Amino acid sequence: MKNLKQRFFILVFLIPLLAQAVGQEIPFTLDDRDRIIRTEQKVEALDAKIGALDVKIDSKVNDLRSEMNARFDQLFNFLWAIIGIFTTMMVSVFGFAFWDRKLSLAPMKREQERTLNSLRDYAEHQPKLREILKNAGLM
Predict the structure, then answer these.
(1) Residue 24 within a domain
(2) What is the model's pTM?
(3) By 3-state DSSP, what share of the chain in percent is helix, strand and coil, each rounded to 5?
(4) Within a domain: residue 6?
C-alpha cells in the first residue's frame, strides 16, 4: 500500500512536468538548416564515391573471373594431356604383353605339334598307343 502511495505521489508531480515539456516548441534556426544542407551534400558525395567504388570492384571481379577461367582452362587441358599419356602408356604395355606372350608361345606350339606328329607316327605301329590317342581325341 505504501508503495502504491509513492507511485501515485510521483505521478501527480511528474505529469505536469511532462505536459510542460511536450508543450514546448523547439526553435528551428538557419544554422540548423545549413547543417542539414551540408549533411545532405556529404551524403551525396559519399553516394558518388560508393558508386565509383562499385564500378571499380565490378571491373576487378570481372578481371579476376576471366583470369580464373583461363587458369581452369589451362588446368583442364593439362589434365586431358595427362589422361592421354596415361592411356597411351597402358595400351602400349598391354599390347607389348600380348605380343610377347604370342611370340614366346609360338616355339612351344611348334614343339608340341612335332611331338604329337611323332606320337601319331609311332601309334601306327603300336595299337595300344593308337587306342590311347583315339580316346584322348588326338588321333
Answers:
(1) no
(2) 0.46
(3) 90, 0, 10
(4) no
